[in-house]
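User: Working on a comparison across species. This one is Drug/metabolite transporter (DMT)-like permease from Gellertiella hungarica. Can you predict its structure so I can line it up against the others?
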Amino acid sequence: MNRMQANLVLLLAAAIWGGGFVAQATAMETLGPFWFIGLRFAIATLCVLPFAINEGRRASQPLSERHVKGFLMIGLALFLGAATQQVGLRYTTVTNSSFLTGLYVVFVPAISVIFLRKAPHWIIWPAALMSLAGIFLLSGGALDRLTIGDGLTIICAFFWAIQLTLVGLFVGDSGRPLLLSTVQFAVCAIGGMLVGAATEHLTLDAISGALTEILYVGIFSSGFAFVLQVIGQRYTTAPQAAIFLSAEALFGGLFGALLLNETLTTAGYVGCGIIFVAMIMVETVPELLKRKSISAR
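Assistant: Here's the predicted structure for Drug/metabolite transporter (DMT)-like permease from Gellertiella hungarica:
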């Protein structure tokens, strides 16, 4: 898989996440946030586990202790990101949440520079800022007064950035993207159910009322889309992945307009255009500069 194909895989993951945002919000009408997290990731674990077992049978070498610890850390980052986002949705608007979650497009390259001492290609910085501006316009071009939910969503964006960065570090040299996905899902499922059992009341009626949302988010937004993310990141960098995954807000707005008859404002369409241009820049500018450098030799 080349880099362009990998980025298209990440774009597909963003489209699936965009379609699942409404399900995350409506599920909490009957189900607590942590039980929702636990159940969705339990389904995701069961969906991916057979493929991970088959991947292990074909693996040429066993996993190292470093990889196992890395997979567990990725799962913890994913759980903390999912938890802060899901709880935050109780106390903030969808507009604020969709914008603030997109802050990871700036956090990822910052983490690469500060903690990994690895500077991304210079085009990442303007593209990240353009994506952030596009998400802001797509969310309506305005933020309500910040609440505790907004603070939780900003923390969520930071954990998403950590998860993206760690996936980039471990998925390539481990050669086990499906096992990585299974481990991170299992960590989220266990964490969600433990916290849910301690803090939330669960009934069969609550599960039945949110079953459609649980299945969609569990199978597609969790099981399928996160696997696509992990596979795509084997062939591209974490900062580039963040740009393409930020299209989640773009697809969320488009699906809202198509499926829920929500109106996309003029600013929203401009935001979509800006995000699209940012993705094109990330994909084409490094390649064009590389070709120009080769031809100049």
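For your comparison, note: The CA atoms of residues 172 and 285 lie 24 Å apart.

User: Helpful, thanks.
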